[in-house]
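Lecture 7, part 2: worked example. A protein chain together with NAP.
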Amino acid sequence: MRVLLLGGTAEARALAKTLVPRVDVISSLAGRVLDPALPVGRVRIGGFGGVEGLRRWLGDQRIDAVVDATHPFAATMTTHAAQVCGELQIPHLVLARPAWDPGEAIVVESDSKAAETVAQQRYSRVFLTTGRSGVKAFADSDAWFLIRAVTEPDSEALPRHHQLLLSRGPYRYDDEFALLRKHRIDALVTKNSGGDMTRAKLDAAAALDIPVVMVARPELPGGVTVVGTVQEAADWVAEVR
Ligand code: NAP
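Predicted complex, written out as structure tokens:
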């Protein structure tokens, strides 16, 4: 059985490790990161060319099942995979790590709404962790930003006043606490990525009484089968097999 594993996440790498070599897995990465952490087994990198391209690729590669373990905000890829697998009747699963409980965070629906909130609330020293693609929504903001991302954002996307911190999780509570204090951060802006690798910043912000603006996840397409853990996804693959 050959499985397409849409990846780019720690969960996708963990699932590949669980399945390979018993199952013929091809992991797929978007190609956004220059030096991505690679899963075990076969890997392809780059877009498929939209719905058409994915349809063709799945046929050419004789894929029997698709596990979508992309980032919870990779909504386009997830929609395309659900649509094409539905049409071709290929068994399809979404592995979506559980979302964070937003608690007292101000929940917004997009990066641009988060930027509006920063302006409305007059936050002045913001820890911005919405990722490379989320930065451009803040380009016109007057606040100062500590921007943490895996890859450098385009220079025209950057706000006037900022410091860039290029790094990749996981992050520890003590380090996040120290970082927030060192930069005298007065607001944290984050996507609701979920998972343990990057949640320490929320705990540190809560401990320091720093308000959080959280971008809500895009909705999953209707009718898809969803699991929350790598083990459940591995069980699903075994069942399909
Ligand atoms: P997206 O908006 O869902 O995808 C845009 C296009 O990228 C897709 O249509 C597809 O191109 C290609 N693509 C995405 N994931 C792919 C995969 N696993 N294999 C092959 N092609 C893939 O996703 P995004 O632009 O990557 O990211 C959207 C948000 O998710 C951003 O906020 C980003 O920071 C966050 N995020 C994504 C990833 C990731 O691995 N994708 C990781 C961390 C964070 P075609 O239409 O040409 O097939």
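The mean pLDDT is 97. The helical segments are 10-19, 50-60, 75-88, 111-120, 173-182, 200-207, 230-240. Keep this in mind for problem set question 3.
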